[in-house]
Amino acid sequence: MEIIKLVIKGFVIGIAKIIPGLSGSLLAVTLGVYQNGIDAICKFWKEPKKYIPFLGIAGGGILLGILFGSKAIGFFLIHFYAPTMLLFLGLIFGTLPSFYREYVKLNRVIIGIFLAIFLLFFLLNYSQGNTSFLYEDTLNSKMKIILFGFIDATTMIIPGISGTAIFVLLGCYPFILELFSGIPLNLLQEPIYYFALGLGFGILFVSKLLNYCFLHYRDGTYRVIFCFALVSILFLGWDIATASTTSVEWIVGLLLFFFGIQLGKRFG
After folding, report:
1. Could you give the CA distance from residue 21 to residue 87 in angstroms, rounded to a whole number?
2. Prediction pTM value
3. Residue environment code for 152-171, b if the CB has 16+ CB neighbours within 10 A, otherwise e
4. Residues of the chain with pLDDT under 50
């Protein structure tokens, strides 16, 4: 029974990972598997037999969630972009109040962190423009895919930061979605192995770094996480507002937004 529960939790986290604006790791915290996951990754080489079952079962559930959800999410984003995004925006927005009350206090430090992250997102968005990433058989393209994998690992582990939100800003979200929705056929293609290389290295590096930060700089770490989540919401909101949307889509989207907030409050 516990195995089934862990698979289901992993599946839900996997679905959340591919939804722009929703953090899979934040959901892992609320489902009670986050700390176990960090411990398993950081201490794996010391006691591999102890942690292999947990990582295998939870990781399998996450992978199933990604594979199952990628095609469905892709369909809704193509045909119902604004309503779909507003639902996701509401989900992450609804988790912020409880997160803020528990971990964050408004002061000059957090305002400075917010402005720094806002500037970073602005520069990323400005430099990318409206172009989308297209894979080419070049060293530069392969290095970018490795970087995408590293970014995915970072956002997978750090609660409150949506990897798909950042991928949308970088213009590579359609590529990532297609990469996973094409499995198992894409296992014969090089790009997925470059992505896996960056993902594997990122998981090992970031989990140890985050474990250290939580041990020694707990409050500051949570402030940074909160600011990343808030800035992601602002930029995604602007992206939705500037998209071509009908009045009916706006009405439906706003209803879904408030519905998403209520769901987010449950997660938070």
Report:
1. 9
2. 0.64
3. bbbbbbbbbbbbbbbbbbbb
4. 129
